Amino acid sequence: MTTRTTADLLTTVAEDISEMAAVAHALDALTSELDLSKADQSKIRDLQKIDALFQHLDDIAALLRKMSDMIGTGPTLDTRDLCAAVRLDYLKTRLTNATHVDAATPPVAGDVNLF
To answer: Per residue in 59-71, pLDDT tens?
Structure first.
């Protein structure tokens, strides 16, 4: 498919942003379990930005969904042009295909690989 309606694309992007917000929510929950008693206080303040991150992502997703509702179908957009603006193959697939694709499947067991 080389074109999709603006509303459909906005909804797709909103779904992806919601998934990223869920990741930020999980990171925020994880930080509360860490022993930060010996950590540099300026670094701890930086961790508070995770809270702001998921709040912003949640709001942006809600905004995009509302825009999708308000625009009706809207004009159709060429997904090839949109794909040229992004690097992630996952996002390119999401832009060209309305069906859901998993961004990454985490391993179910094994060693943690933190890059």
So the answer is: 999 999 999 999 9
